[in-house]
Design a protein that fits this description.
With 427 residues, this protein is of the alpha/beta class. It has helices at 2-19, 21-31, 40-59, 64-70, 72-96, 101-124, 127-130, 134-143, 149-156, 158-171, 174-177, 180-202, 281-285, 304-311, 326-334, 355-361, 378-382, 400-412, and strands at 209-220, 223-229, 243-247, 258-261, 272-277, 293-301, 315-321, 339-346, 367-373, 392-397, 420-422. Helix 16 (355-361) links the parallel strand 8 and strand 9.
Length: 427
């Protein structure tokens, strides 16, 4: 059940914050010469910061096992919070353990690089943060006219350089190098993370599976439908409600993978259908891509179907708004036997997409749709809550503010948090 997801999320945080640094701290404290006891705490803080930065780099490779366990949105939140926390610890390490020469130089350069990247990332790459701080959200939208997403990605990779500087920094400290058990862990962790990163970037099909874009047309104002035909025997593990990362490496400015949700429920031999709103440089440039052409697809990612399966759901209530309705369409198509109520809202001046799907689904005895321009009132949706709620699952999709609103409303109505799932697209 969703309790399983919540348990996994808590366990991942526990492992990241406490378990991973512990062997490093134990081996270091056991071998640290007594003469350095007064600097023991700052040294330990520096070690924790380094371990967290290694974990941050690993999370940046988008490990699929971690997505299926807690979801990429939660993984990226962990990534962002650990980055900031590591920077704070690095500051106290720097202030509490003075050094000189190359040791100081490599440490200072690494810290300054981390600091600059952290400030930049807080605006451009930490969607979990900007979505909660209106000032940062407004600043991000203004600055995105100058700083393209591809630039942000490459700048973010300078974290690797900063981490390398810290690696060198440690090798220059002779009393640390003399602690063999610690250095063994230090080397194993560092080499392991670098190997994982290089494998993720340069392994065969690291960009995803090469497929063919065979359809590309507008289905509403500023919304395009892409139809992608996968090669035979494509080894993508896709489920209803998933999203995939797509890229066009042969086209200028289109080489960085971007995530988009499936409209349809993936079945062997069927093309993938994506519906994409033109919000940024990449999405607006899709209108200029001629088909057929090569496109790289990596996936699947997402937890909607896991939530349904783990809960052994017998009934769904789905609330979707705007383009956020897309993965929920895939969920409905992939779960035709579940009793489902679907509440779909759009802003005034917008258009409903895939109205034909709703007309077809409304013929099912177990499916009911509610569509309107403008948000539904809380009372209207709550009055449709079934009396028997034990096997009810509520799925949400849409703007972040909308999703968080309905999470709060359903919890206040007595539903457990593990019955409600909202997958935030906040990066």
């Amino acid at each position: 059940m969703l309790k399983k997801h919540s348990y996994a999320l808590g366990l991942v945080w526990l492992v990241a914050i406490f378990v991973l640094p512990m062997p490093f701290l134990y081996t270091l404290s056991s071998g640290l010469p007594a003469i350095y006891n007064r600097m023991a705490l700052p040294i330990m803080l520096g070690v924790i910061a380094y371990v967290w930065m290694l974990l941050v780099i690993y999370i940046g490779t988008k490990p699929k096992w971690l997505d299926r366990l807690i979801g990429l949105p939660h993984a990226y939140m962990l990534h962002g919070i650990l980055s900031l926390a590591a920077l704070v610890l690095a500051f106290f390490h720097k202030e509490g353990s003075p050094s000189s020469g190359l040791i100081k130089l490599t440490g200072d350069y690494a810290f300054n690089l981390f600091l600059g990247l952290a400030l930049y990332s807080m605006i451009f790459m930490a969607g979990w943060l900007t979505s909660r701080v209106p000032f940062l959200e407004r600043l991000k939208k203004r600055l995105e006219r100058l700083f393209k997403h591809e630039i942000s990605v490459w700048l973010h990779r300078l974290n690797l350089l900063a981490t390398l500087l810290i690696f060198i920094h440690v090798q220059l400290i002779d009393y640390i190098v003399a602690i063999k058990p610690f250095m063994l862990l230090f080397w194993l962790a560092s080499v392991g993370v670098v190997a994982s990163y290089l494998w993720a970037k340069f392994k065969p099909k690291s960009e995803g599976i090469r497929a063919r874009l065979v359809g590309n047309h507008a289905i509403a104002e500023n919304i395009r439908e892409l139809v992608i035909r996968l090669p035979e025997k494509a080894k993508l593990q896709l489920r209803s409600g998933d999203y995939v990362f797509i890229s066009f490496p042969h086209l200028k400015g289109m080489g960085e993978p971007h995530p988009f949700s499936l409209v349809n429920s993936p079945k062997t031999g069927d093309p993938l259908i994506l519906a994409i709103r033109g919000d940024g440089d990449f999405t607006r440039a899709l209108a200029n891509i001629q088909q057929p052409t090569d496109v790289y697809v990596d996936g699947g990612f997402g937890l909607y179907q896991s939530v349904i399966d783990d809960n052994q759901a017998k009934e769904l209530m789905i609330v979707g708004g705007g383009i956020g309705v897309v993965p929920l369409l895939s969920v409905v198509e992939g779960n035709p036997d579940l009793k489902t109520q679907f509440f779909y809202t759009i802003k005034e001046g917008s258009s409903f997409i895939y109205a034909d799907k709703f007309r077809e689904w409304d013929k099912r005895p177990q499916f009911t749709s509610h569509r309107q321009v403008g948000r539904f009132s809380d009372a209207y949706i709550l009055e449709h809550l079934p009396e028997e709620r034990e096997n009810l699952v509520v799925l949400l999709g849409g703007p972040i503010s909308m999703g968080r609103h309905w999470q709060k409303i359903f919890k206040e109505a007595g539903l457990r948090s593990d019955q409600i799932y909202f997958e935030e697209f906040s990066w």
